[in-house]
Amino acid sequence: MRPSSPSPVRQSASPVRRAVAHRVRALLLLFVAVAGALLAGAVPVSAHAALTGSDPQQGAVVDKAPDRVSLTFSEAVALSDGSVRVYDPKGKQVDTGTTSDLGGNTYAVGLHAGLPDGTFTVTYQVVSADSHPVSGAFTFSVGAPSETTAEVPGQEAGGGLVGGLYGFARYAAYAGFILLVGGAAFVLACWPRGAGVRAVQRLVVSGWLTLTAATLALLLLRGSYTGSGKIGDVFDLSLLGDVLQTKTGAALVSRMLLLAAAALFIAVLFGVYVRRDEGAAEAGEGAAEVVEGSRNSRGDSRGDSRGENSAGNAGGDAIEDRATDAGSAVDTAPAVGTDPVVGTDPSVDTDSAAEKRDLTFGLAIGGSVVAVGLAASWAMAEHASTGIQPGIAMPTDVLHLLAVAAWLGGLAALLVALFRAPADAPIEARAVRRFSRVAFTGVLVLAVTGLYQSWRQVGSWSALTGTSYGRLLLLKVGLVAVLLGVAWFSRRWTARLAETPASSAGHGGDEREPVGTGKQYAGMGKQSAGTATDAGDPQRAAQLARQQAAMAAAREKRVRNADPDRTGLRRSVLAEAGVAVVLLAVTTLLTATEPGRTEEEAKAATSSAQQSVAAGQTGVLSLDIPFDTGGEDGKGVVRIDLDPARVGGNDLHIYVQRPDGEPFDIPEVKIAFTLEAKDIGPLPVVPDHITTGHWSASGVQIPMAGDWKVAVTVRTSDIDQVTVNKNAKIG
Questions:
Q1: What backbone torsions phi and psi does residue 693 show, to the nearest 5 degrees?
Q2: Which distant-in-sequence residues (6+ apart) come within 8 Å of 729 by Cβ?
Q3: d(CA 174, CA 681)
Q4: How many Cβ atoms are within 10 Å of 328's Cβ, its own excluded?
Q5: How far apart are the first and last CA of the chain?
Q6: What is the mean pLDDT of the chain?
Q7: Which helix (H) or strand (E) holds 681?
Q8: What is the pLDDT of residue 375?
Q9: Contacts (Cβ under 8 Å, ≥6 apart) of 545
Q10: In this predicted structure, what is the pLDDT of residue 45?
C-alpha cells in the first residue's frame, strides 16, 4: 500500500507556520537592530585605572613651582619615560622625562628648576594593570593662573581606527572561544553522533579559526592600541617586542600555544573519533541485514510475501533504531548476540565499545585542560587579575567563561544540528534533553559567578545606575532574563519532542518513503546523466544532475521540517541565538568599560579636589629654603610642609636635608610665622623631633589669611646658627 498523502489540515497549517516563522525572524532582526543602536550610543571609557589624586592638585594655585609632579591612580599602572609630560604656559616641555614609582600607585616626573609663574599643563598616557590604556590631562598654576598656549598632544591610544579594530578583534576572540569550546562540549557530552555531521564540524573549526585570527590581530594591534594609536605602527616589530614583554602579551602567546593543542584535539575528534563511530554503525547495519535475511528465510514459504517482508523490515527497523544513539555498539552488541543465526563474537563489539569509551574519556580530559587554559588567558590579563580579591576573582572568571561557552556555544551547535543535520539522521530527543541539563547547570554557574563579579566591579547600588559599567551590567542582566524566557519555551518543545514515540521522532507517518525517494531520485539523476553522456550530451547530463540534486535537497528539507515539534524547537533556539549575539556584544563592552567601583572613586577624588580649590585650599604648602650657617658642614635645605595651609589648625612637618638630599641630623630647628601687613607675630612654633632630619608639630594656628613670612632658625652646632625666611600665601 502506498503511503497516504498528508492530510488537508497539515497542508493548510504549513503556510501558517511559514508566516509565523517570518514574523519571528522579523522580530528577531528588529531586536538585534534596536539593541545594536543602544550599544552604539553607549560609549564606554576604555580605562580601568582612574586618576584619583595628584600633587599639585588639579586646578590648584601654588606659591612656588614644585620640583616634581606626582599622580596617584586607583590601581597599579605601567608607564615608561615620557608617559607623563608637563608644559609651561608657552607650551614648552619642562619635565625631565624620567618617571619614578613612589609606591602606593603613585608615580612622579621631575621638573626643571627656574620655572616661570603661570598655568602648567600635565598630560599622561599609561596602561592599567588590566591591560587597558589610560590617558588624560589637567592643569595647575604657579603664583596665579594665566593664559596658556600649551596644546595637549592627541590622546589616541585606545581610540580611532586602531581602537575600533582592537575592539572588534576582542569580540571575535570571545565568539571564537564560545563556538570552539561550546561546540566541542556539545558533541562530546550531548550528541556524539554530531562529530560526523559536516555542519557541526564546520562550526567548531570556524570557532578555532576565528579565535586564532583574532588572537594574532590582538598581538599586532596591541602596541599601537596602547601607544600612538596610528595604523602604521601595527606592523612595527619593536612595538611587538615590547608587547611580548607585558602581561597581556604573555597571555596572548599562551593562548596561541593552547590553540595549537586545540587543533590536535579537533583533528582527533573529527577524525579517529568519527571513524570509530562509523565503524560501530556499519557493524550494526551489517548485523541488521543478516538478521533480516535470516528471519525472511525462516518465514513460511507458503505465507503471504507481504507479511514476510513486513517481519523482515520490522526486525531491521528495530535494530536501526537501537543503533541511532552515540556509542551504538554497546546497545547493538547484545541484540546481535541474541540471534542464533548471526555467528558473531560479542567480545568484538565489546572491545570496540571499550576503545570508544577510552577515546571519549581522553578527549574529555584533554579538551577540558585546553578549555580551562584558554579561559585563563583572559582571566590572567583582564579585570580579574587586578583590584580586590584577585585570588578568588581569577578562578571565578574562568568558571564564568566556561559556563558561557557551554551554554551559548552549545546553543549554536544545537541550532546547526536542528537546521543542517541530515533528514535521515536527525538529532535525537535524548541529545536535546542532555543539552537542556548542561545549559541549566551553566546558567546556575553563571548566576553565582556573575553575582560575585558584579559586587566586585560595581561595589555600590549608586554605581549600578550612576556609572556606564553599572548601566551596561543592567542591560546584560535584562538580556539574560530574555534569554532564559526564550529558553523556557525551548524546554517545552524539548519535552514535547521527548513525548513523541521513537519511531515517529523526525519521521511523521509518510516520512520513510520521502527519504528513500530522495535517494532514488538522486540515483535516477545519475542514471540519466550516464545515459546522456553515452549519447554524447555532457551538458544535458550536468543539467539533469543539478535538477535531481535540487529535488533531493528540497525533499530532504521538507522531511526535516515535517515534524511540528522540531520546527517549534528550531524557532525558539534561533531566537535564543539572536539574543545571545547581542548578549556577547554587551559582555565585550563590559570588559572594555571602567568598573563602577573605580569610576566612583575617581569621581569622589575629583570632586574633593574641586571643592578644595573652590574653598581656597591649596593642599599641602611646600616651601624649600636653602641655608648656610657658615660653619663646617653647615649647608643644606629645609623643607616646610603646612597642611592644609589655611586659617585654623594646621599640621606642620619640617625636613632638613644635605645638599645631596640625604637627611641632615642637626641639634635644633625653630619656626615662626609673621603677618607684617597686620602686625601679627612672630608666632613661634617649637616642633618635636621625630627622626633624623624630621620635625613635626600639630595644631599650628593661623589666625588670618594673607601673605605670611615664614622664618626658620637652623642650628648645626653649638655656635653655628642661621635664620632664613620666605613668604607664603596662606588662605
A1: 80, 10
A2: 63, 618, 706, 707, 708
A3: 70
A4: 24
A5: 106
A6: 73
A7: strand 680-685
A8: 94
A9: 525, 526, 528, 529
A10: 38
Are the C-beta atoms of 685 and 652 separated by less than 8 Å? Answer: yes
**Total H helices, total E strands in the chain:** 19, 18
Q: Collapse the DSSP code of 423 into the 3-class scheme (helix H, G, I; strand E, B; otherwise coil) and give the result.
A: coil
pLDDT band at residue 597 under the 50/70/90 scheme:
low
For residue 435 the three cell numbers come to 543539552
Residue 704 has what DSSP assignment? Answer: S
CB 412 within 8 A of CB 179: yes
The C-alpha cell that represents 506 in the structure block = 523526525
Kind of pairing between the strands at 694-702 and 648-657? antiparallel
Task: Classify residue 595 by burial, with Cβ atoms within 10 Å: 0-12, 13-18, 19+.
Answer: buried
Residues 6+ apart with CB under 8 A from 268: 359, 363
Phi, psi of 653 (to 5 degrees): -130, 135
The pairing of beta strand 118-128 with beta strand 133-142: antiparallel
DSSP state letters, 538-607? HHHHHHHHHHHHHHHHHHHHHHHT--HHHHHHHHHHHHHHHHHHHHHHHHHHHHTS--HHHHHHHHHHHH
Burial class (CB in 10 A: 0-12, 13-18, 19+), 517: middle
Domain boundaries, the chain: 51-155, 512-561, 620-730
Residue 697 Cα to chain centre, angstroms: 52
Q: How many CA atoms lie within 13 A of 668 on its CB side?
A: 13
Query: Cα 269–208–210 angle (5° rounding)?
Result: 160
Find the mean pLDDT for residues 296-301. 47
Calculate mean pLDDT across residues 240-262.
92
Write the pLDDT tens digit of every residue in 160-189: 788 889 889 988 999 999 999 999 999 999
- Cβ atoms 594, 44 nearer than 8 A: yes
| pLDDT tens-digit series, residues 714-730 | 988 888 889 988 888 88
Q: What is the pLDDT of residue 153?
A: 59
Could you tell me which CATH number the domain at 620-730 has? 2.60.40.1930
pLDDT tens string 660-687: 878 888 888 999 999 888 888 888 988 9
Interatomic CA distance for residues 103 and 107, integer angstroms: 7
Q: Angle formed by the axes of helices 160-177 and 564-591, to 10°?
A: 140
C-alpha distances in Å from residue 7, one per residue of 145, 251, 512, 541, 558: 89, 61, 17, 36, 15
714, 721 contact by CB (below 8 A)? yes
- Tell me which architecture the domain covering 51-155 has in CATH: Sandwich (2.60)
Query: Is pLDDT at 365 greater than 90 in this prediction?
Result: yes
**Mean of the pLDDT values across residues 416-428?**
74
Dihedral sign of CA atoms 700, 704, 705, 706 in order:
negative
Percent helix, strand and coil across the chain, each rounded to 5?
Answer: 60, 20, 25
| Cα 127 from Cα 132, distance rounded (Å) | 6
* Core vs surface per residue 152-161: b (16+ CB within 10 A) or e: eeebbbbbbe
Least confident of 48-52, 144-148, 301-305, 578-582: 301-305
- The residue with cell 579565535 is 211
Q: What does residue 684 show for φ and ψ, rounded to 5 degrees?
A: -75, 150
Amino acid at 639: R
Mean pLDDT along residues 112-125 = 88
Phi, psi dihedral angles at 54 (to 5 degrees): -155, 160
Residue with grid cell 609606591, as numbered in its chain = 103
User: How many CB atoms neighbour CB 209 within 10 A?
Assistant: 15
